[in-house]
């Protein structure tokens, strides 16, 4: 019967290059944890799959296999009984299984020692008897020339020999862990889908401590993600061309990617505002688009770190985990390997300890790359800056977010103009910081600038007359309604909600989740104000 090629690959395990890539990490983990834990950790965090026999064979080849010799056990037991001399292994923290084995060895050793002493005593008695009888016969026995060594002397000689061996063993272990090779072998994967070769490599510097701490693992995760991103950005990328495509639009090839991430972002928001049914339907809609998304675009990576950051998904962490696993499986199927940089990024992003660190560093890295390659005022660069500000603000670091937002607004106003979409998007980030800080008056004035409400009509009694009706303006109208509601001006809040709903019909003529959500907010406000008779009119008005 013919064996499938996949089974052969699985039986052979990782290539020598892959073993070399993860050598330091495996040795460091194995020095502290049992082999089963190492295998599980490498599979979950790096997609590295190998059998226990493969691990033992490789660890033996590297000189790092933890097979306890009897002298090492004796030395460690001596250390436990009389602290003072350090054992040859850094095993102060034994797991339960190892402790049980050591206890069994200790009991066996004591039993064997007593048996040896008893046998030695019996042998000496026999020697003495034999010597006496021989002397009586006038002959000299060979036993009379032997000078018996006492058990204490034997133990001293053995311990000296064991100490020398232990020291040499420790030196060998240090040389393995402290390997200063600055560059691992790099394997290039076929990425004909994109027309360029992507490379994956480990960071050139790893912690030299033989113990793995949470901090070390976190740093390694960030380094691996940044290295993977570096290999992706080394190839040609699909950017939006500001000269040929109007501001706010994207090339057709990126449309599925934008639609997918817009749906995911909307679903996360709907979960936040307690509309789970609508959120789930939006996620299912996004997953139908997912197979046609382009993983190799900067837009995809930027949206990954911005939308699925733990800061943005605090209330939906389990949903975030499932989405990342789904995207990881999708990427594995697309590239045909678990070791591609995109797969590595998605898998490691799941293990980010629910902090903003990985998202923030990744977005900051992309901001540097985009600024160098496409300029500071490219729509993608500005979007990356706004997402970074949004991330920091949602983590309630209002001081840093306010400083970054003001700087971005100042530079976009100077270089793009007051009414440019990039400037208005930057203003929205500052407006959100002001709202979260409770500065309603300043936030409201900024909102009027974003939607183009004439200054002469910005008084308290003004009728909404916005000059802009794009998505940025519509979301800002909702913010204006929220501000009025917060300061007790419910009538004005309803006026702006109605304006937002009417304008949304031209932006989404076939209806959308956004239109339905605006309608829900207006209906809720009308019912609260005792104007339920108007609900039916707005429910049947417009599309969707």
UniProtKB/TrEMBL annotation:
<feature type="compositionally biased region" description="Polar residues">
    <location>
        <begin position="137"/>
        <end position="157"/>
    </location>
</feature>
<feature type="compositionally biased region" description="Low complexity">
    <location>
        <begin position="121"/>
        <end position="133"/>
    </location>
</feature>
<protein>
    <recommendedName>
        <fullName>Clr5 domain-containing protein</fullName>
    </recommendedName>
</protein>
<dbReference type="InterPro" id="IPR011990">
    <property type="entry name" value="TPR-like_helical_dom_sf"/>
</dbReference>
<dbReference type="InterPro" id="IPR025676">
    <property type="entry name" value="Clr5_dom"/>
</dbReference>
<dbReference type="Pfam" id="PF14420">
    <property type="entry name" value="Clr5"/>
</dbReference>
<feature type="compositionally biased region" description="Basic residues">
    <location>
        <begin position="102"/>
        <end position="113"/>
    </location>
</feature>
<feature type="domain" description="Clr5">
    <location>
        <begin position="16"/>
        <end position="64"/>
    </location>
</feature>
<feature type="region of interest" description="Disordered">
    <location>
        <begin position="102"/>
        <end position="161"/>
    </location>
</feature>
């Amino acid at each position: 019967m013919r064996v499938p090629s996949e089974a052969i690959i699985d039986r052979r395990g990782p290539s020598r290059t892959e073993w070399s890539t993860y050598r330091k990490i495996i040795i460091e983990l194995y020095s502290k944890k049992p082999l089963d834990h190492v295998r599980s950790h490498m599979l979950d965090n790096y997609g590295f799959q190998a059998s226990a026999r493969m691990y033992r064979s490789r660890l033996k080849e590297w000189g790092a296999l933890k097979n306890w010799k009897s002298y090492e056990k004796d030395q460690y037991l001596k250390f436990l009984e009389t602290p003072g001399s350090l054992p040859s292994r850094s095993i102060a923290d034994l797991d339960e299984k190892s402790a049980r084995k050591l206890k069994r060895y200790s009991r066996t050793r004591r039993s064997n020692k007593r048996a040896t002493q008893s046998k030695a005593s019996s042998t000496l008695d026999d020697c003495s008897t034999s010597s006496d009888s021989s002397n009586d016969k006038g002959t000299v026995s060979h036993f009379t020339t032997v000078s018996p060594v006492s058990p204490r002397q034997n133990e001293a000689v053995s311990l000296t020999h064991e100490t020398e061996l232990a020291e040499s063993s420790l030196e060998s272990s240090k040389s393995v862990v402290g390997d200063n090779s600055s560059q691992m072998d790099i394997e290039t994967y076929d990425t004909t889908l994109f027309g360029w070769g992507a490379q994956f490599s480990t960071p050139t510097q790893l912690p030299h401590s033989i113990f793995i701490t949470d901090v070390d693992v976190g740093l390694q995760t960030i380094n691996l993600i940044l290295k993977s991103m570096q290999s992706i950005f080394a190839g040609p990328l699909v950017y939006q061309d500001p000269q040929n495509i109007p501001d706010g639009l994207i090339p057709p090839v990126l449309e599925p990617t934008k639609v997918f991430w817009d749906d995911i972002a909307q679903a996360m928001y709907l979960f936040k505002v307690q509309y789970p049914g609508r959120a789930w339907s939006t996620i299912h809609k996004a997953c139908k688009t997912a197979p046609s998304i382009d993983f190799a675009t900067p837009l995809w990576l930027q949206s990954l770190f911005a939308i699925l950051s733990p800061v943005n998904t605090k209330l939906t962490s389990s949903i975030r985990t499932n989405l990342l696993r789904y995207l990881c499986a999708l990427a594995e199927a697309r590239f045909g390997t678990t070791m591609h940089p995109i797969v590595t990024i998605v898998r490691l992003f799941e293990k980010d300890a629910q902090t903003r660190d990985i998202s923030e560093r990744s977005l900051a890295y992309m901001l540097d790359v985009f600024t160098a390659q496409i300029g500071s005022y490219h729509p993608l660069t500005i979007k990356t800056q706004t997402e970074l500000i949004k991330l920091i603000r949602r983590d309630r670091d209002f001081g840093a977010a306010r400083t970054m937002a003001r700087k971005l607004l100042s530079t976009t106003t100077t270089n793009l103009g007051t009414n440019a979409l990039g400037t208005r998007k930057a203003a929205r980030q500052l407006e959100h910081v002001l709202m979260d800080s409770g500065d309603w008056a300043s936030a409201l004035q900024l909102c009027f600038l974003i939607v183009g409400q004439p200054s002469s009509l910005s008084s308290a009694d003004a009728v909404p007359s916005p000059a802009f009706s794009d998505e940025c303006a519509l979301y800002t109208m909702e913010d204006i309604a929220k501000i009025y509601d917060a300061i007790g001006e419910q009538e004005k809040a309803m006026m702006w909600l109605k304006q937002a709903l009417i304008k949304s019909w031209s932006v989404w003529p076939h209806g959308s989740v956004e239109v339905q959500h605006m309608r829900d907010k207006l209906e809720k406000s009308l019912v609260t104000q005792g104007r339920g008779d108007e609900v039916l009119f707005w429910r049947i008005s417009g599309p969707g």
